Amino acid sequence: MQRRRRGKLERLARILEIPEDIVLDLPRITMLGNQQLLVENHKGIIEYAPFLVRIKLNQGELVINGEELTLGNLAAEQILVEGTVAQIKYEV
Predict the structure, then answer these.
(1) In Å, how far are 10, 23, 92 from 47, measured between CA atoms?
(2) Helix, strand, or coil here: 27?
(3) Could you give the angle at the alpha carbon of 6 between the alpha carbons of 55 and 60, nearest 5°?
(4) 3-state DSSP: the chain helix, strand, coil percent, rounded to 5?
(5) Is the Cβ–Cβ distance between 27 and 40 less than 8 Å?
């Protein structure tokens, strides 16, 4: 049932020329080198430490490992992680 709904939403997004991440409630992750990581359309912060950031997503979570990680630009649906990013994992 979920696959059929997702397929219909994908077709609708293409027809209306709307980005699929908006229609399907997917996160948008933008990385600038290994110094900045912008996560949009998240569901909250699970854990934060200077070496680890865990962010809740609609489906799973994003785990960011690194050094001197800080959170900036905290908005309702976007987080900017700054510092030295060593590893990113998308866990479902």
Answers:
(1) 32, 27, 16
(2) coil
(3) 20
(4) 20, 55, 25
(5) yes
Burial of 78 (0-12, 13-18, 19+ CB in 10 A): middle
| H helix runs in the chain, sequence order | 2-16, 20-23
Amino acid at 60: G
What pLDDT does residue 39 have?
A: 95
Q: Determine whether domain 26-91 maps to CATH 3.40.190.10.
A: no
pLDDT at 71 over 70: yes
Inter-residue contact 15 to 7 (CB < 8 Å): no
| Cα angle: 71, vertex 76, 82; to 5 degrees | 15
